[in-house]
Amino acid sequence: MRRAVWTWGRLLGPAAVLAVLIWHLGTGPFLDGLGTVDGRALAAAAVLTLLTTVCSAWRWTIVARGLGVKLSLPAAVAAYYRSVFLNLTLPGGIVGDVHRAVTHGRDLNDVGRACRAVAWERFAGQVVQALLTIAVLLVLSSPVHASIPLLAVAVGVAVSGVVLLARVRSDGIRSACARGWSAVAGDIRHGLLARGAWPRIALASALIVAGHTTAFLIAARTAGTDAPLSRMLPIALLVMLAGLLPSIGGWGPREGVTAWVFGAAGLGAGRGVGTAVVFGVMVFVGSLPGAVVLVVGWFHGFRPAARPEPRVRKKPVHA
């Protein structure tokens, strides 16, 4: 029962956000946003999505290898493109990640470890994103500037807790709960905080945040917003955090948060919705190589294997 409620909530929540926006603002901002999309924005989206996808795949390989999972960078890039495309076309926003984890696990005959690698990879990226967002919001003014110091303390305590958890080591047979905590600590220690791993994970995650933020800033300019960078950067990072919430193919919370933060910043809620629409189109177009990967994988999976032709032995010729 709880699972069904959660599933329906993940779908109805984003739909309700879009319905409220249309009720209050009408369809004009959505149509205006679609009308402003141009070729330059789409070209920028393709380049930036390539950058963020390669960095995401690199981060995945680092975490996976730390957990003892084999994964090459080219295979990771293709799988990540497919994952992004599925996340943007299917409800929930995480279907692509689940598919990526399970498919990789089946290839390795170790679904559990592959799923853990994907989960920790996504977790690491979200932690770095949160830290960068808080750092920027502490320096630059934004509609949430007053509450950022308290949030920074909370995040700092949480990160410290994760680091301390990583120091937990198994000391023999104990309770199932203790063994579970020890396994989690081992994953963090080897997959995320290993000496050679965490700087590269942090760098990859920072590049990903920079790529997504740049795409949003381009979307804002395309939609007609000419506010300075110092004003737009906090807004962009707040909207990027909204992308972590459950959505319908990426739509819903992003448009709601963008409308709210644009309105609070005096830029107009309608302009915020238009910007979110442009950004959504840019992200979708940038993910289209994932559709190619999906089709190629589907065709390869259902194509009958070629049977080798039987070799005909030549009879020896006797003199």
What's a concise summary of this model?
The protein is mainly alpha-helical and 319 residues long. The chain has a domain at 27-144 and 197-296. Helix content is 75%, strand content 0%.
**Number of helical runs?**
13
Radius of gyration over all CA atoms, rounded: 23 Å
As a percent range, the share of helical residues equals over 70%
Number of beta-strand segments: 0
Chain-averaged pLDDT: 86
Account of the protein in words:
This protein is 75% helix and 0% strand. The chain has a domain at 27-144 and 197-296. The termini are far apart. By secondary structure, the protein is mainly α. The longest helix is centred in the middle third of the chain and has 29 residues, at 111-139. The protein has helices at 2-25, 28-36, 39-66, 73-89, 95-108, 111-139, 148-165, 176-192, 198-222, 229-242, 253-264, 269-286, 288-302.
Could you name the key traits of this structure?
mainly alpha; 319 residues; 13 helices; 75% helix
Write the SSE topology.
Layout: H1 2-25, H2 28-36, H3 39-66, H4 73-89, H5 95-108, H6 111-139, H7 148-165, H8 176-192, H9 198-222, H10 229-242, H11 253-264, H12 269-286, H13 288-302
Helix pairs in contact: 1-11, 2-12, 3-4, 3-6, 3-8, 3-9, 3-12, 4-5, 4-13, 5-6, 6-7, 6-8, 6-9, 6-10, 9-10, 9-12, 10-11, 11-12
